[in-house]
Structures are given as C-alpha cells and as structure tokens.
C-alpha cells in the first residue's frame, strides 16, 4: 500500500508546476505562443457567443467557458493547448426548451465552420480561427481568469470551468479513455494525470482532498460525475503505473494514489443512506452528531434497503481491487 503523504508536503511538491504569467513584450517559446494563440481564440469565441448569439436569441446569462486542457492552462499556465473544449452554460428552464436548444445548436454549427458535421444532441465540433473546437451544452460552475493572450497588450478576462469540476472531469477522462485510431492513448492518459497534479494544489489549498470532496458532497455540478468513475480510476491508475512507472517520480505517484483513495472514500460515502430521523422521533437511543438515530444492536439504519447495501458492497469491492493494483 502507498503511504499517505502530508497535504502541506504535497502542495509544496506540486506548486513548482505553476508558471508565472508572461506580460506583454515577453518572448514565449513556440509551445507557449501556440497556447496563447488558442486561448486568444477562445476569448474571441467567447465574445461572439456571449454577445452576438445571446442577443440574437434573446437569452440572458448565456455564457461560454473553457474546460479541458485549455481550462487548466488558463488557470495555471502549466501546459500546452492542442484544441479547445468549451462548455456553454444554458441556465434554468431555457436549457430544457427543445426549440431553443435546436436554434442554439444551429447557430453554433454556423460559427464552427467545418466540412464534416460531427455534431451530437449536446455537442458541436468544428473549427474557429484555425483552432479545433468543441462546444458542449450544459450547466457548469465557472470562474473568471484575467490573463494575457495572443496579441493582447492588456489582460483579457477568460471564463474558465471551476477548478474542482476540471479536476473531476480529468478523473472521468482518465478512467474512460479507450484506444482510438490516430491517437496515442498513453500520451493522453499521462496528460490527464499531469493535469490532476497541476490542479491539486489549487483545489486543496493546503487542506486534505477528502475534506474538499466532503464539503462539496451535495454539489452535483462539481464532483458527482467524477465520483462515478472513482473505482475505475483507481484500477486504471494501478495498471498505468505498472506499465509506465518512469512517467512520474515517487512523490507524484504518491499524490495520484492519494487522489484515488480520496475519490473512493467520497464515492463510498455517497452510497451510504442518509436519514433525518432523530432519536427523539424513534426512541432508538442517542443520536449521532448529525442528528440521526443510532440503531440498536448494529441494525441497518432506517432506509438502508437492499439497493443501498449492494451499492456499498460494490464500492468496497472496487476499493479492494484498486488497493491491489497499488501494492
């Protein structure tokens, strides 16, 4: 089993990945210049969607944000950007209006001009300004990041997917990646893990990852999709390490396995039944600190049916498999 590393040591080890922002007049290397160009393209596309499309459709609070590797680069300036993975937030009932969504998709297809119509019900793929772009409809938490981009002499405000959501999206991506023609699966997965290591200090801020996940336990927009992939993530991480031990140093592997353990614990906690029934209401004895009654004789708490027990058992089995892979 991997030894748990102190969170302060983790943050100190990982903060070296944060690269300072270059101001105007600084000569970036070719890879940085390409990334700045793509983020500048994202800024231009944000203006088109947030202003023109929003006005044409009469939709308030419609906004485009940068996810994927572009989001990581915008937040930490620590990686190159090959393409743009964007999310379009459509608020409330408007997002459930089929006619509005169809009209919105039509306009997005016109903006992302491409010879191949590679569109789904929620995602449009194409190009803008010479950069490959995908735009997916959905509600995501965001934050604004001010930075210099290609040809800018002053900072540009970029809307970026929230760091914790980016983090759990990367967990899901790593766990679910499969072989595709023309793609290097190993390179893609290594990039996912490097992004996790890059984001880790920002989302934990010196705290334990388990505490951060517990704090957002009811926040479906930030963590729930990632928790669904927790067991698979641990298994695939163990397999990847066996095949590519030299890809990371010992400290980095320790952090990644700590991520797997924290995700697994959070996923397991999600499967446990919750109850608001107090001891006074049931007469079952003293309540625990949450106010829930403590059942006598080790009996299952109220509402813990067969489905709950199966889910809990499955989570334990997945954790055992993940632990074996890490040994």
From TrEMBL:
InterPro entries noted in UniProt: AbiEii (IPR014942)
GO MF annotation terms: transferase activity
Region entry Disordered, spans: 1-35, 266-327
Keyword terms, alphabetized: Transferase
Biased segments, Low complexity type: 285-305
Top-level taxon: Bacteria
Name of this protein: Nucleotidyl transferase AbiEii/AbiGii toxin family protein
Pfam families, per database record: AbiEii
Annotated transmembrane regions: none
């Amino acid at each position: 089993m991997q030894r748990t590393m102190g969170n302060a040591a983790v943050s100190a080890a990982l903060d070296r990945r944060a690269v300072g922002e270059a101001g105007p007049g600084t000569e970036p290397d070719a890879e940085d210049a390409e990334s700045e160009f793509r983020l500048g393209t994202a800024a231009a596309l944000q203006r088109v969607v947030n202003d023109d499309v929003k006005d044409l459709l009469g939709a308030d609070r419609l906004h485009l944000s940068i996810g994927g590797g572009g989001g990581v680069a915008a937040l930490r300036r620590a990686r190159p950007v090959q393409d743009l993975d964007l999310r379009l937030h459509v608020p409330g009932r408007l997002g459930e209006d089929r006619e509005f969504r169809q009209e919105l998709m039509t306009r997005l297809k016109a903006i992302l001009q491409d010879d191949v119509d590679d569109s789904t019900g929620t995602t449009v793929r194409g190009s803008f300004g010479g950069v490959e772009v995908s735009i997916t409809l959905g509600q995501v938490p965001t934050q604004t990041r001010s930075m210099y981009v290609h040809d800018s002499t002053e900072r540009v405000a970029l809307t970026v997917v929230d760091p914790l959501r980016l983090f759990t999206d990367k967990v899901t991506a790593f766990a679910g990646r499969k072989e595709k023609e023309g793609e290097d699966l190993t390179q893609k997965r290594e990039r996912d893990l490097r992004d996790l290591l890059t984001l880790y200090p920002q989302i934990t801020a010196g705290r334990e990852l388990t505490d951060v996940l517990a704090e957002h336990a009811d926040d479906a927009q930030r963590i729930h999709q990632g928790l669904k992939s927790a067991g698979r993530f641990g298994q695939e991480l163990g397999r990847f390490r066996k095949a590519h031990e030299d890809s990371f140093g010992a400290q980095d592997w320790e952090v990644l396995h700590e991520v797997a353990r924290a995700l697994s614990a959070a996923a397991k906690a999600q499967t446990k039944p919750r109850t608001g029934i107090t001891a006074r209401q049931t007469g079952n004895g003293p309540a625990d600190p949450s106010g829930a009654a403590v059942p006598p004789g080790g009996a299952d708490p109220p509402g813990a049916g067969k489905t709950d027990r199966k889910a809990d058992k499955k989570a334990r089995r997945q954790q055992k498999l993940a632990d074996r892979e890490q040994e």
